[in-house]
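Hi Y.,

Following your request, here is the sequence exactly as I used it, all 485 residues.
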Amino acid sequence: MNTINCFIPFVDEQQARATVDGLKSSKFISKIFLLADENAKGGIEGCEVLKIDALTSTATIKQIAANAGNGYVLLYCKYDTLRLGYLAIERMLRILDDSQSGMVYADHYKVTNGKQVKAPLIDYQEGSLRDEFDFGSLMLFGADSFRKAASMVKQNYGFAGLYDFRLKLSQFAHITHVDEYLYTDVELDTRSSGEKVFDYVDPKNRGRQIELEKAVTEHLKEIGAYLEPKFEKVQFDENDFECEMSVIIPVLNRVRTIRDALKSALSQKCDFKFNVIVIDNHSTDGTTEAIDEFKCDNLIHIIPDRDDLGIGGCWNFAAHNKHCGKFFIGLDSDDVFSSEETLSKMVKAFYEQNCAMVSGTYMVTDFNMKMIAPGVIDHRELAPENGRNNLLRVNGIGAPRAFYTPLFRKVNLPNTCYGEDYAVGLMMSRHYLIGRIYDVLTYGRRWEDNSDANLDIVKENANNLYKDRTRTWELRARIKMNKSN
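Below is the corresponding structure, written out as tokens. Let me know if you'd prefer a different format.
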């Protein structure tokens, strides 16, 4: 009956005692290993201490594999108390065996500010390549699968060891989500979704990001989805356009910000003709009237004759309009261009870098356009050398984004209100270079009405699930393309 070896983080007895006692109450537990760094003190009777450098390192994964035993591995990844649900261990074991999986993870409860709430997770799939994919804090593995995945690891990582390991595991084993609430832990990160969204591009995390990029690049090579930095040429030979560049602004009920966006767009200084196309998606808060205050020949105000357009659909509607320029750039209705030279820099980048799409750099600001953390977001992880591969790992593509209109019209954006720009970036990067500009081109204003400012867990999960699906589709397309070449 004693078939599970457990591995839990350890600082001292006070921190880990309740978790250890809970585990010992299960008849399926064989051994408990305490994962302790150099600052940990003491131990707990009946447990074995394993000295580690970090929970997420390759060295720690190797140590766990060496002590996995002959049955199963239970890994807990938080420094707070784990409280198992009634018969939870039995349930996870049954599903791991019945589904013939290499790993299972489960929905759970979390205690936030003293209140217990549900923490549902999402299903793992081929495109779940985000390094911040949420498995919860408790994972159960088959010991043989754990050892096999650990033996496939080629690099020694300090930050990316656990990430690299689970990518290796996914190459030969099912990773199964148990959508049942099987345990409780304490939520340690109580920030809103709008505050967490920039973690992966925060400059202070750059060293970690480099390791994660290496791990995902190796994974893509091993599964046949890696793309070399060789790109199809863009000819720019279609010239049946009334202007060189358009600014496209989709908007719905942004009366507080639309004037600022329009002023910054209309004040651009260029040696070519440009226009501004506003797709007003049936606003009801005075936005429509605010737009009409601007009396400019190069401002085109369109209210669609249909009511089924998301943000992506609005972009498509404008890009296919007869007034759209040879290139177009998107501007969120609550953002502003940082200078009068943004359009000129974008057009120059298209020709100099020979790209179908250009992604710029932005500064995160408050509503009054004063810089706030994390500051300048330049998405250096999307550099031409490996950006098209690393894009499958990260959750965004930078801003502002501009496109060569004839190629965009062949791809188009999904008609969604989240992830639409990311999806088209993935598709375009399959064939063409995404150009980069590292000057700050826009101010990205963070305020209470941002679409991702404070999402509940259901909406956040839906968004992440959709982006994982787009990655799965793109992953399969790249594998197919590589096989045919």
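The domain at 4-190 is CATH 3.90.550.10 (Spore Coat Polysaccharide Biosynthesis Protein SpsA; Chain A).

Thanks again,
Q.
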